[in-house]
Specification:
two-stranded antiparallel ribbon; alpha+beta; 6 helices; 6-stranded antiparallel beta sheet; single chain; about 260 residues; 10 strands
């Protein structure tokens, strides 16, 4: 810990952490809002309670980072936190529903287990070892930490925009169109030089970093009709998770890919 300070972290992790901030603030605001509604608080008051709790939770994290000797208070993080909260709040006030959802999925790539020796430091390790040290090994660690695995989605519900035509439309009210952003080849915050626990470094710049952009189908689980209160609760809680579906990918390496099922 140290004195409170701010720092410029724009460009770290190909900015995937920023999209994670937006998704987290959005989801926290939404879940807090649903909790407030459950207690009987009127809709508009519940919206502002949700927005306030989402803002409070994320700002607390940023203030703690501000007192960290290794990090600092990030205005860019706060901007994306605010964007997530505003996206939730504006939709509830305008439409009384979420027509555009922010979701997350995580498909971990197969990291190479082939050892690489850094001629400068003498360290021998594999890309997999570096990735596991950076992002963790179990599912719940890498779901929100592995920036090579994470995809953040904007999931749009076309049926909600049909207005009076919605009743006559054959378009399923639960079917969404999703666009996503991800990245690959990230083995360090700014560059692919991994620092091992013994402080020796491993140069992994032979693995290029690139952005990934996705187009996919999705399901808004909260719009699935059911009479079961239990299922309604489950469908509402898991609403922030992208459903696996066929997906088109384009990346900054100039490649087009089709994934029969991608999550």
């Amino acid at each position: 810990r140290g004195r409170f300070r701010s720092f410029d972290d724009w460009g770290e992790w190909e900015n995937m952490d920023k999209w994670g901030h937006l998704m987290t603030a959005y989801t926290e605001s939404y879940l807090a809002y649903k909790g407030a509604l459950w207690t009987g608080i009127p809709q508009k008051k519940a919206v502002w309670i949700g927005a306030g709790i989402g803002t409070l939770l994320q700002t607390t994290v940023e203030v703690m980072d501000g007192f960290s000797a290794r990090w600092g208070f990030s205005w860019h993080d706060m901007a994306f936190n605010t964007a997530g909260t505003v996206l939730f709040t504006s939709q509830e006030l305008l439409w009384q529903e979420q027509r555009l959802l922010i979701k997350v999925s995580s498909t971990r790539p197969r990291y190479s287990e082939a050892p690489i020796t850094d001629p400068r430091s003498g360290l021998t390790a594999s890309p997999q070892e570096a990735a596991f040290d950076l992002y963790g090994t179990n599912f719940f660690e890498y779901l929100l930490k592995d920036y090579n695995a994470m995809t953040v989605w904007a999931s749009i519900n076309p049926h909600a925009f049909l207005g009076k035509k919605a009743q006559d439309s054959r378009f399923p009210p639960w079917l969404n169109l999703a666009v996503g952003i991800g990245a690959d080849g990230i083995y360090g915050a700014y560059g692919n030089v991994w620092t091992a626990p013994d402080n020796r470094t491993l140069n992994l710049t032979q693995f290029p970093r690139h952005r990934q952009y996705y187009l996919s189908l999705d399901i808004d689980t909260a719009r699935i009709k059911t009479k079961s209160p239990f299922l309604k609760t489950i469908f509402s809680v898991v609403r922030w998770v992208k459903v696996p579906a066929p997906t088109l990918e384009w990346n900054s390496a100039g490649e087009f890919k089709f994934h029969p099922i991608y999550w």
